[in-house]
Design brief:
hydrolase activity, acting on carbon-nitrogen (but not peptide) bonds, in linear amides, 6-stranded mixed beta sheet, AspA/AstE_fam, single chain, hydrolase activity, acting on ester bonds, about 180 residues, Aminopeptidase, 5 helices, alpha/beta, 6 strands
């Protein structure tokens, strides 16, 4: 029997991590205008446009990939004028939704992406040892049935992930073709 998970109190819904992936952008903008369908009693759900400058230009990123700069070095860099845009944005996101690795971090972040690969709706996980995340994936797969929803596990025991969603206690990525 699995141990009970702590209740989820704060959820981030991210779109636009890559500015040319518009499904998440459109959903976030929709939820920012009318969040009734995502609100639940006792849970703060925050839709958030992660890389607005890249979205404005409809390009993957401005200076560097936002989904690769949530590492300790980037998050700890001094804020100076010539800091890459995405590094500064990562620091801002970490302040709002983190700090990464702390008890104050958001409980859950869904980072919504697109791909041109023919993989359909796919869930990306970075940790198979997180009971909450495994239960959440099971719930999502059942909710989407009979539509297929593969799960891609990109886990490595010595790798520290530097993705936007890694700020949360329980990170989940969702890709849609």
């Amino acid at each position: 029997m699995s141990s009970p998970c702590a209740p989820v109190r704060r959820v981030g819904l991210f779109g636009g991590t890559h500015g040319n992936e518009l499904s998440g952008v459109l959903l976030v903008r929709h939820w920012q205008e009318d969040g009734a369908e995502i609100q639940r009693p006792g849970v703060e759900v925050k839709p958030f446009l992660t890389n607005p400058r890249a979205v404005e230009r409809c390009t993957r990123y401005i200076d560097c990939d936002l989904n690769r700069v949530f590492d300790p070095e980037s998050l700890g860099r001094p804020v100076v004028e010539d800091i890459p845009y995405e590094v500064r944005r990562a620091q801002e996101i970490n302040q709002i939704f983190g700090p990464k690795g702390s008890d104050d971090a958001y409980d859950l972040i869904f980072d919504l992406h697109n791909t041109t690969s023919n993989m359909g709706g796919t869930i990306i996980l970075e940790n198979s040892r997180d009971d909450f995340t495994i239960q959440m994936v099971h719930y999502i797969k059942n909710a989407l049935a009979p539509e297929p929803c593969p799960v891609l596990l990109i886990e490595h025991p010595s790798l520290k992930y530097a993705t936007t969603r890694s700020v949360a206690k329980h990170p989940i990525g969702k890709y849609q073709t």
